[in-house]
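Go through this pair.

…
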Amino acid sequence: MKKRSSMKLNTVKKDGSKPYLIFDATAIAYAAFYSTGSLTYRGKQTGVIYGFVRRLMNIGYKYKTDKMIFCWDAGKSYRHNHYPQYKRNREKKKIEFSPAEKKLHDGLLFQSLQLNHEILPRMGLRNSFCVLDYEADDLVAYFVNKLNGSKIIVGDDSDLYQLLDRSDMHLLKKNKRVNKKWFKKKFGIHPDQWVEAKAIGGCAIDNIIGIQGVADPKSPSSKALKYIRGELNAGKIYDRITSKEGQQIITRNRPIVTVPYLPDLIPRLMYRRHKVTRNKLLREFDRWHFVSMLEDDNFKKWQRIFLHGT
């Protein structure tokens, strides 16, 4: 776990230059787990590392930028103190793992730790952050709020839609960049209203219970979105939302679905220029026997991202 820092954030002036890529690194590790997680080298699991590095390369090359920030979950968060049921469904699922599933999941966690503490730093990638009691989403939001210039969040978590007023987003599953205009067209509300929609409808993935009969707002037809758009003016659901009990649920949920959570307690973090070199990349890819990363086409991508094509 990284120590809390007292250093001030190093902001940069908005100059139309390369965008920052702010990675939900935990989400990318999970995506790698489901795509290449079965890969091994000399009896050790390497699939998460390989999938993570490959995606980093492809996204960095796509946006022609080396300005990368990696944000990791730190396990249990402050939200558990506010709402004990938070993510309890996931903990229950882990308890039900078979021995084989547990081994794979432990491998995912171990490879994530290796990426954060060893592999990315050895490659010269210096902006890998994990803060005690905070989730990756909170750190993503921290940097979106603090950094000047163009920013692209890399991840799939819909909680991050609330940041689309200040950043674009690269959706991992769809492999496409979206922005505030896309969000408004799809959901019919502004990004700064997304917190309210989640507070009303809850979040099934995080086990946040919303108002009865109002589902997690995943589609434009969500009753939570209809209420915010003024399209739900009568009936049982409207009465539940506007009732005293409904408003208490919304008030309880609102801080839980807001990112960053308890922002004043997040230590000041500093963005630093990376120190990637050709030899660092070669050594790391050779260490893990990532032969495909050393092939001409792929290694040229790394050179164009970090070594200015040399």
